[in-house]
Specification:
The protein is α/β, with parallel strands linked by helices and about 700 residues long. It has an eight-stranded mixed β-sheet, with helices on both faces. Strands 20-21-22-23-24-26-25 form a seven-stranded mixed β-sheet, sandwiched between helices. A hairpin with a 2-residue loop joins strand 22 and strand 23. Helix 6 packs across helix 19, helix 10 runs antiparallel to helix 11 and helix 13 packs across helix 17.
Length: about 700
């Protein structure tokens, strides 16, 4: 009876009583075809129509709307699948569908997630249209809807792995990272791994890291450097990204299990300093905070490019959070002088990014027109850079240079990060572009490349890929943002271009002018050799850790009762100056006590206003390799700010490395300065 009544009513209205399904190809054609096929499977008992933009004569919204009315006048639309991938070419068609069938729209996003738009759930529908992933549109803040069951999950599992044996001669430090720094899939992992290697000679390292992948990981290279590795599962954060005062990235790494493990192991193993990598981990509190980039500066660039309310909110809370925490840490590390000026705090120091100069060595360039861009998509500025290059620069290059090719190294799981940051389901393909995922050794790619490109539009910190390219003796074309903080000069050791036309023209110029390309490449290699080797950067890292630790020895002025022990210590150190012990009391003589035994001494005197000379330093054999000399020197420099001089035997390489590690520089020589045996003295100087 109901069916007969339904047919009667729709005949009166002049419509077919059986509803039809009209799928609108309002985005990427391949995705639209997949949606049409899926809808036919899901609704097999209905008539199906696929509407394409080419079906309409007029390009305007209202012209399409009128054409839809004429075409489907005799039908009742039961479902209107619609693709929302943000492509502006299909904007008029999408608007016409919203006017024609507003209550029937089954919306698809570029991930091919679907959601029935409804006036009954306006917030969820609006969020889906705005591009929020389906699994997040029904999230509500805990403070607004405490009864919601889909809440954040904080795993309690901790995995601990033993590394190399502990040593009594090495002091103990902890490093906290948001990820395990191997394999070397992106710049952050490269930096952390190389500095762990540089630190491992002097310190026992306890590495704390989050794991967020079920894939197998090779732990051995890091375990060879660390005493222990502690892994915590990354929390599953289930709050709306806009809903908290602290940035969501901070909440994504708030783990009670990690905090408890850090506290327990720090106390159990008497860890003396904690270094925290990345700003979002700052609430774990430590002695050193490493700002791989000044995050609020990155979000300021994003806000300036598109000043939407959400981007203003992200910038404001990152700025508030970051400035709050850099004031709380005794030491903050940044990558460049520009970043230090940006933070403008006395506790900020620069330890730059670097490159392994022994691994990245030049090889002869082969003829060709091959470009290389290395940038993991897990860091979203690299996605922005890739889209800028492919959409705006690449068409210009292909028009003038049909044989040019690009190799893009996008890091592990690039499609996952591409979809997350762009909302697009696939990475556009091109027969001239080779897209690679994680590459364990990028050196062969540099060897085959003629130019390295860094088309970064938004960035903070400094880019390791620029340093690696220059170390491999390849010329680099970069935006200003891509090579910021590296003290590079346009047309000298890099070519800088910011507009699409200029970037394309720069590539053409350098590919055509081999002499210019080789000159820039050679200057780039020389620049990194002088400034960015991990070995020299490791000296700064180790000094920073030492200065963050309490003195192990108790230091006091020497007294007459100490003279016999001072003479004995001096006798066991033939490389030091040999004085009469009683003469030391005429100068400033400080002794270091460890377990109430005299471990060593340092003697100095004033030579001018705010200038002093260190006359002698010696350590008892029982206390060598415990950094007692370092502590005596640190105490001396702290007590007497100004200029300090000292002399050291030319052959005493260990002492010279010690002084250089503290910041002393060689400023002269004194031939035949030492006796027994006669030897040149190297004069060293430091301003403390």
């Amino acid at each position: 009876m109901r069916a007969a009544l339904k047919r009667f009513i729709f005949r009166l209205l002049g419509k077919d009583p059986e509803a039809i399904v009209v799928t609108f190809a309002s985005g990427d054609p391949e995705l639209s075809e997949r949606i049409f096929a899926e809808i036919q499977r899901l609704v097999p008992g209905r008539r199906h129509f696929l509407v394409k933009p080419a079906d309409f004569k007029g390009p305007s919204t209202f012209a399409i709307y009128r054409e839809l009315g004429r075409r489907f006048r005799g039908y009742r639309i039961g479902q209107a699948p619609l693709l929302l991938d943000g492509d502006p070419r299909y904007r008029a068609l999408r608007r016409a569908v919203f006017l024609y069938a507003p209550t029937k729209i089954l919306a698809y996003n570029a991930r091919l997630e679907r959601h029935q738009l409804s006036f009954a759930s306006p917030i969820a529908s609006l969020l889906f249209v705005k591009g929020v992933p389906l699994d997040r549109i029904f999230l509500r803040p805990k403070w607004l809807a405490p009864w919601k069951k889909d809440r954040s999950i904080y795993p309690s599992k901790i995995q601990e792995m033993e590394g190399r044996p502990l040593s009594a001669s090495r002091r103990r430090v902890a490093v906290l990272s948001p990820y395990f720094p191997f394999p070397l899939a992106h710049g952050g992992a490269v930096r952390i791994f190389n500095l762990l290697r540089e630190m491992s000679g002097e310190f026992d390292i306890f590495l704390f890291a989050f794991s967020d992948s079920e894939t197998s990981v090779d732990y051995k290279p890091v375990l060879d450097l660390c005493a222990r590795v502690i892994l915590a599962e990354k929390p599953r954060y289930r709050e709306p990204r806009w809903a908290t005062l602290a940035p969501p990235e901070v909440h994504e790494f708030r783990s009670p299990a990690m905090r408890e493990a850090l506290t327990r192991i720090r106390a159990e193993y008497k860890v003396e300093a904690v270094q925290v990598e990345y700003t979002m981990l700052a609430p774990y509190a430590g002695d050193i905070l490493v700002e791989h980039d000044v995050t609020f500066a990155l979000y300021r660039q994003i806000r300036d490019r598109s000043p939407a309310l959400g981007r203003r909110w992200d910038h404001w809370r990152w700025q508030r959070f970051e400035k709050q925490w850099i004031r709380r840490y005794p030491k903050v590390v940044v990558m460049s002088e520009e970043d230090r000026a940006l933070l403008d705090r006395p506790n900020v120091t620069v330890i730059p990014n670097g490159v392994d100069l022994e691994r990245f060595t030049p090889e002869i360039e082969r003829p060709g027109e091959r470009l290389l861009f290395i940038g993991s998509f897990r860091h979203f500025p690299n996605i922005v850079a890739y889209r800028f290059f492919v959409e705006q620069v690449w068409p210009i290059l292909r028009e003038h240079s049909p044989h040019i090719t690009l190799t893009m190294v996008a890091g592990p799981e690039p499609l996952l990060y591409w979809r997350e940051h762009t909302g697009l389901s696939s990475i556009p393909a091109d027969d001239g572009i080779r897209l690679l995922e994680f590459v364990s050794d990028v050196r062969p790619l540099y060897v085959e490349a003629n130019l390295a490109i860094v088309p970064t539009l938004v960035s903070a910190g400094t880019n390791l890929k620029v340093l690696e390219a220059m170390a491999m003796d390849r010329a680099v074309v970069s935006t200003s943002s891509g090579c910021a903080g590296l003290s590079l000069d346009h047309a000298v050791n890099v070519w800088i271009a910011d507009q699409p036309e200029d970037f394309a023209r720069a590539i053409q110029i350098l590919l055509e002018d081999e002499a210019l390309r080789r000159r820039i490449a050679a200057a780039g290699r020389m620049h990194v050799e002088r400034n960015y080797g991990w070995r020299q950067i490791g000296i700064q890292q180790r000094a920073l850790l030492r200065n963050s630790m309490p003195l192990r020895a108790r230091i006091r002025p020497a007294q007459e009762r100490d003279l016999a022990e001072l003479a004995e210590i001096q006798h066991t150190a033939p490389e030091s100056s040999q004085w009469q012990a009683q003469d030391y009391l005429a100068f400033d003589c400080q002794i270091a006590l460890l377990d109430e035994r005299i471990a060593g001494f340092l003697v100095s005197r004033p030579i001018a206003d705010k200038e002093r000379e260190i006359l002698n330093i010696a350590i008892h054999p029982d206390f060598r390799r415990l950094h007692i000399a370092t502590e005596l020197l640190r105490a001396e420099l702290s007590r007497w700010p100004g200029i300090h001089f000292l002399e050291v035997r030319q052959s005493n390489l260990a002492a010279r490395r010690l002084y250089e590690g503290l910041g002393f520089q060689a400023v002269g020589e004194r031939p035949a300065y030492y006796d027994n045996p006669p030897e040149t003295g190297i004069v060293m100087r430091i301003l403390s």
